[in-house]
Amino acid sequence: MDKCLNQPLSAREAVTGRRSIRRFLPDPVSRETIEAILDQAARAPSGTNTQPWHVHVATGAARQRLAKAVTAAAIAGEESEEYRYSPKERFEPHLTRRRTVGFALYGILGIERQDMEARKKQHLRNYQLFDAPAGLFFTMDRRLEYGSWLDMGMFIQNVMIVARTHGLETCPQASWLHYGGVVHEVLNIPDSQILLTGMALGVADPEAPENALVTEREPAANFTVFHKD
Predict the structure, then answer these.
(1) Which domains does the chain have, with CATH numbers?
(2) Among positive and negative, which fits the CA dihedral 111, 114, 115, 121?
(3) Is the pLDDT reported for residue 4 higher than 90?
């Protein structure tokens, strides 16, 4: 974390300092803190104030049951995909960006490209929430359309940013979508709700080398067109 609570982050610092944390300390996060983060994040905009978000928080024994069940399903190769997050065939520049961050992470961890066993072991850490004490699982009614997906994205982003102002960090995890059926079953999520993503929440381990990874971003000049005349 960049600053403690008596030295609050500016909005700019909270946004630009955000990164995906892949190892957390075991320090518990109270229900009151999580509720405060969600209350504050719920100021996100939504079309005609529909507020489509639902959040299922897994801590304690529930978190352990979920981690055990999804890890077992992943080892057995028993996928139950919630929805397709990425296209079947990746293309540029997205393909290179994905490979770059993957190679950078494995490099920091000392995992060779050809060491498939070590890579698989690292991937399975997703389902341990990278040791975070809390897992947040974001859902919405399946009947809603694309506009609500945008609303959910803004809400989820708010959660990640607001968490930083509470001295906490996060890792959004689309990997849970491969085992959406298991998540639904263990957390008793109604079939009427679609799981959009999972997220690890906790205190970042400052000694973990993987937490030093800061991914690159394209400058605005590369993705923005200004229309004037």
Answers:
(1) 11-86+127-206 (3.40.109.10)
(2) positive
(3) no
